[in-house]
Write a structure and sequence with these properties.
5-stranded antiparallel sheet, alpha+beta, 536 residues, 18 strands, globular, homodimer, 36% helix
Chain lengths: 536, 536
């Protein structure tokens, strides 16, 4: 069989197999300390369990082959395997157990907006479910659509829509196609001296279309803005035809319907072009570390910066537990050996030299005034160096029987401490006292912030038992989040995993409105069935 | 009869009668120069033409009286007159002609969310159209709902919902009721040392609910943000029940449904609480004037500031024509007598002393470097002093037979010059070479800006002829805006006047989605029928 190329991920692991490693020594010690002796073994081979046969007959696919070309309508096992589910721990556990039941019946690769529209028309005609596929990085079951009631399910792979269509240097906007992965978009813009400034942890695999469809937020969003703030225009293929939005930076022409497409997770249409605000590539980037006596003290400092309009480009704060095991430096996870307890904060300033220096000085004055201890540039550079590596580490931990997963939320500043305490308590109660529950704040606003939890626990047993273990913990934490009035997700989207909690957040009427919009744009319901839109 | 109190406006004129004046001498000269001798007369008396009788029988109103109390269900002429239409020039011309056919059948004044809900339930039961009424300042026909097909039409006056419900000083948010007018909200927040920072020209009359329902943008929005950026939470009464939104500053929990309520103009529900981001009241405010050799040069300077992240709190630029007649200073309109031609820019910096000084110095360096001539603080202070007075001037001009109206749009920076030229040409072609067509930029973004046009023309004749004259000019300009790909409105909302152009901006699918949402939340269509939502 063909091994996955670096741009396609195997359903059982994150990323490029060439970059996957066994657990580093630094982490081994920590893991044994926390969870006892491990069965240390080499990284297991990728599991190429057989797939269920494609349920779509050749005759049904024939018109699609005629439109897209034979090579872009694939039903072979290798292609289907690489489009099976996303990258949540449940997704990985199921694949590790050899369960590839969610494999699409076919993978179709349209090469233009019009071909996307043709796929949708075909899907409506034959009542085939369509799952838009970008980087395959969903961690909320966003690629596990319902297939019951449909003639089959196709993965609509946007891999051929990879153009930088145009750049408007006066308005500082660019039109990008949805299949561009983060690094590809940055390379194309970089050749023009520009950047999008959007760097979520999934950056190396996730795509422009996915960023838009899930309202992604990146590690530099304090400086560059969330992805929904970067988008100024959209082109969407829907079962009812083409939809273009974006007449001006802002307007008062009724509700801002761009914000209805952003976050629609492929359930309302397939985004085929995204017009984004761009910035000049920063001339200077400076990252620094700060130590705070407590999570509360560091969080208050973040709030002060946000409310004073002095936010750096990047700002993150690990709680005491996360700091203690060096999670901010995936290459050096393990006991930090720090003499002093406390919390690590990373700040990053990017831009023109004068502005960076002015911003850094202003932020430094505030942070020192509030009791932060500057740690110099080394911790910041270490974080930058390792910031896309955490998903590899999760695989290595699973290999040695340690369940690792993340979940995140956001709330108002006045509710932060309560939310932190209650979610942590819920996770600990569900996973047991032996579990590690770590947290950081990675996105801050004038009125509130995100909380990003990482848990590590002795796996309950085989993949099935471990899956049950995690689902129970996830449910407990999700209940705690919504009980505290916080959001079920700050930047991981709804998918299937968060859908049961969405109505608690947006109300029965919110669910009703989403169903009404879906019914209007996708009357036969072929687009990503079961994703995002709450059931009645 | 009772004369309008300062908080209620007569349908034929703007504002407080005690502040209305005849045209100042400075403007007289200009008007005679432009349009010839005028019939100079005193300000005419308010026209108290009789209203059509209320079409709602007492029996129908009885349950409402039982719920709200007799004094809050009014059918007297004076109360109905003061809730008749808004403040567009067509609204004023119709009232001046004695046409008050759009008067509501009754004015109802609920005192709480639950009472608003009760009014909606009553309206659904009896199929009565409901027009939410805040300050009555709409300039796009937002208060002229369709009554055909309904048993009657009530104005749902939010005047009793005027509380500052709570302040969260940690999160820097406040919960406001929708009936608070701009100055009332600022006074309540000011007592806490806080400000909303939202100052549209309608500030003295417009309300919190109206700001939210129309996605208002104020004169300080460069610094404080548009109103839709200030809103973090909403409570809405709909015919299907209560809807609360706002779990966090930002999230990825599906589309941001707050943005569907913001801009819904009372067609989806009645906003009963608005949670807004607040700021500390600025310790320092500094306004300055700058002269630019041309509108293009000044606009390029604005773009440079916006793209460098150096925007002041306020930034405005008048074109050559507007500068020449001093429109930026309503108390001194007339030939400016300026020796040099050029364009006036106003900049304003607000905040803590150090930040203001740093921002002012950085902006000054950019503006001087680009060829701007500093004019000191006097022009800026003059603008601040007169900034809410322009609507009074429009009445005085109408009194002497000069049609004055405004309209506004927004576009990307690269499209600015084209949009300016084409809208100006369309207005001039429609109104004749003798018309004054003036323009300023009052809202700027990294990717584009607004254009705000003011026209003055010899009125075509009586109110009916003048109305036809204006409607033709408005249509020509609206066509030019949408032909140029710009928005039909940057901050005046859709109402009835912009509705015919909305589909050109948001597409047939956009219109369809708005109808689907309306049908879902307001199944019998009683809420503001004919407003905003495009016809199929």
């Amino acid at each position: 069989m063909t091994r996955p190329t670096p741009s396609e991920m195997h359903p059982s692991r994150w990323g490029d197999p060439a970059r996957a490693t066994a657990l580093p020594d630094s982490a081994r010690g920590l893991v044994e300390l926390a969870f006892g002796p491990r069965p240390w073994h080499e990284r297991p081979a990728l599991d190429d369990a057989p797939l269920p046969p494609s349920g779509l007959a050749d005759a049904l696919l024939a018109p699609l082959r005629a439109t897209l070309g034979d090579e872009h309508v694939r039903t072979d096992d290798d292609t289907r395997r690489l489009r099976t589910r996303g990258k949540s721990t449940p997704d990985l556990l199921r694949a590790r157990a050899g369960d590839l039941a969610d494999a699409p019946d076919a993978v179709v690769r349209p090469g233009s907006h019009d071909e996307v529209a043709a796929v949708l028309a075909w899907a409506v005609e034959h009542h085939v479910a369509v799952v838009p596929f970008g980087g395959g990085t969903s961690v909320t079951g966003g690629l596990v659509a319902r297939r019951e009631g449909f003639a089959g399910l196709v993965s609509l792979d946007l891999v051929r829509l990879k153009r930088l269509i145009s750049v408007d240097r006066v308005s500082m906007t660019a039109v990008l196609e949805p299949g561009l992965r983060g690094p590809e978009a940055e390379a194309l813009l970089g050749a023009e001296g520009l950047t999008l400034g959007h760097f979520p942890q999934s950056f190396e695999y996730a795509t422009i279309g996915g960023f838009a469809a899930t309202r992604s937020s990146g590690q530099s969003s304090a400086g560059y803005g969330r992805f929904d703030a970067l988008v100024v225009g959209l082109r969407v293929a829907t079962p009812r035809g083409e939809w273009r939005l974006g007449s001006a930076p802002a307007n008062a022409a009724g509700p801002d319907l761009r914000q209805l497409v952003l976050g629609s997770e492929g359930a309302f249409g397939v985004i085929t072009e995204v017009t984004v605000r761009v910035r000049r590539r920063p001339a200077v980037t400076t990252y620094e570390g700060w130590r705070w006596p407590s999570f509360d003290a560091g969080a208050d400092a973040m709030r002060t910066l946000a409310q004073a309009g002095l936010l750096p480009t990047v700002i993150r704060l690990s709680d005491e537990s996360e700091t203690a095991i060096n999670l901010a430096r995936p290459d050096a996870i393990g006991p930090s050996g720090q003499a002093e307890p406390g919390c690590l904060m990373i700040t990053g300033h990017e831009g023109e030299p004068d502005a960076v220096e002015a911003g850094r000085l202003a932020a430094t004055a505030v942070l020192e005034g509030l009791g932060g201890t500057p740690l110099g540039t080394e911790p910041g550079e270490a974080w930058v160096h390792g910031r896309f590596d955490a998903p590899y580490l999760r695989d290595s931990m699973l290999d040695v029987g340690v369940l690792v997963e993340t979940m995140e939320t956001a709330t108002w500043w006045s509710n932060r401490a309560r939310l932190y305490t209650e979610v942590k308590a819920a996770l600990t109660a569900s996973l047991g006292e032996g579990a590690l529950v770590l947290c950081h704040i990675s996105h801050v606003y004038e009125t509130g912030c995100s909380l990003y939890f990482t848990v590590a626990a002795q796996a309950a047993g085989d993949e099935s038992a471990t899956l049950d273990q995690w689902l129970a913990a996830k449910a407990a934490a999700s209940d705690a989040m919504t009980d505290a009035g916080a959001t079920i997700t700050h930047h991981h989207a709804v998918g299937t995993d968060h859908r049961p909690w969405l109505t608690r957040e947006i109300g029965e009427l919110g669910g009703s409105v989403l169903r009404a919009v879906k019914a209007d744009l996708d009357p036969t319901g072929v687009l990503n069935p079961g994703i995002m839109v709450p059931v009645a």
